[in-house]
Design brief:
Length: about 425
């Protein structure tokens, strides 16, 4: 774009940024200058990301069926709030969503796949050191768009030395797509919370551990650190009977920790300068049932305060509560059928996916991957179910859901006993 003056570029940015994203992708064919603007102009990327982030956000997740070879694939659109369902093969798993890219695990070929549903671009990435995926504790995706046109994958495994367990990290950058590098954090290994997905915020990936501390991996410095357990987690508000009681995510651009007690809900934001959780906000607990248990989870929507999904014991459906600034309280804004605590916030972008040869994947497997990616794209972007018969399948599923009471889904099936709150404690400290 060297021959184009700055005023012309500004006008071009403004005109193109107002077009639908699917049309903008086609504009790349107009000229080299337009293609460079769309693909490599950081200012244009910032404008585009801001314009579409709030209006096109979705929550995507899968629900394990258990009785078929295909899992249910859900999306919740937020403008307006609607829930749609399709299907996805059992051996295809959604692992993350970050700045317009989705990380998918194709177990059948032992590959990760970085995928942009808007552009259709994808990159297959072999597991690190050809390890089977079940040896990996966690996988994270960090996409730097719109700040930069690159992304990183991070895996966490257990490292055992002299009867001690440590964390072993493997890092792959889109700048060097064929090289997994190994980094170690020598601190006592603590298992991760089930049902709390990783978070990418401030150039770092964050994973919540069962003891309330947070494992952070800085993708710029390529180093891992620990964030200590917050003191407010030990306040005498009483433990809940069942369900997870602590989650991490982002809300209104801030790294946020939520803890649910018998008498209070506590929400705290992270101070990255002092590396501590800031003074938490507390509110009366409105999500527990009469038995003192909670079936649901916080819902992380980037532009909103923390929302909550709560099962209604009468309908067995899930009520979505959002914070209302006018009333300074939470209001029920929608009723949803099923959910998974591993919900991923997706908003479309034109983040580029680097191209690498798939020569070591057979032609039939490449066709299988391409077919599934196209199905995922059509469902997320155009709302077209993956199979025509999925509508009848979803009806059967909802009937089964009503009969069975709607199980709380998570990445490991049902919650392990240690994930539930312990015995009821006398609670009731004063609100801050």
């Amino acid at each position: 774009m060297a021959n184009t003056s700055k005023p012309d570029v500004d006008v071009l940015r403004e005109i193109i940024s107002r077009m639908p994203l699917k049309v903008i992708v086609q504009y790349k064919l107009l000229s080299t200058e337009v293609r460079n603007l769309i693909s490599h102009d950081a200012e244009f990327a910032q404008i585009l990301s801001k314009r579409y982030k709030d209006s096109s956000t979705q929550l995507i997740y899968t629900v394990y069926n258990g009785w078929s070879e295909r899992n249910s694939f859900y999306k919740i659109s937020l403008n307006p709030i609607t829930q749609s369902v399709s299907t996805i093969p059992d051996e295809v798993d959604i692992l993350a969503s970050c700045n317009g890219l989705i990380l998918i695990d194709f177990e059948i070929v032992s590959r990760y796949c970085v995928f942009n549903p808007i552009t259709g671009e994808h990159q297959l990435i072999p597991y690190p050191n050809a390890l089977p995926n079940n040896n990996i504790e966690r996988t994270g995706l960090a996409v730097e768009y719109p700040k930069a046109d690159q992304y990183e994958l991070v895996t966490i495994s257990k490292l055992e030395e002299n009867s001690n367990l440590f964390y072993k990290f493997r890092l792959l950058s889109s700048q060097q797509p064929g090289v997994w590098r190994e980094i170690q954090l020598r601190t006592s290994f603590v298992s991760f919370c089930v049902g709390s997905p990783h978070v990418y915020w401030g150039d770092s990936l964050y994973w919540l551990r069962k003891d309330g501390s947070v494992l952070a991996f800085d993708t710029k410095r390529e180093e891992a650190t620990l964030i200590d357990r917050s003191e407010f987690l030990d306040r005498d508000y009483g433990k809940i009977f069942s369900g997870q009681d602590i989650w991490i995510g982002t809300a209104q651009g801030l790294l946020t920790l939520v803890c649910i007690f018998r008498t209070r809900i506590v929400i705290a934001n992270f101070d990255s300068v002092n590396r501590r959780w800031m003074a938490p906000r507390t509110m009366d607990n409105f999500v527990l049932n009469e038995q003192g248990s909670f079936n649901g989870c916080p819902v992380w929507i980037d532009s909103k305060r923390v929302s909550f999904l709560v099962q209604n014991p009468q309908t067995r459906r899930y009520d979505l509560y959002e914070y209302d600034t006018n009333t300074n309280a939470y209001q029920n804004v929608a009723v949803l059928n099923r959910f998974n605590a591993r919900m991923y916030c997706y908003h479309p972008t034109l983040a580029s996916v680097h191209s690498t040869p798939d020569n070591d994947v057979t032609v039939d497997k490449q066709e299988y991957i391409a077919e599934n990616l196209n199905d995922i794209k059509r469902f997320i972007i155009e709302g077209i179910p993956i199979e025509e018969e999925s509508s009848s399948a979803s009806s059967e599923e909802e009937e089964a859901f009503e009969d069975e009471g709607g199980e709380f889904e998570d990445e490991g099936g049902e919650f392990e006993d240690e994930e539930f709150g312990g015995e009821d404690e006398a609670g009731g400290g004063e609100e801050d």
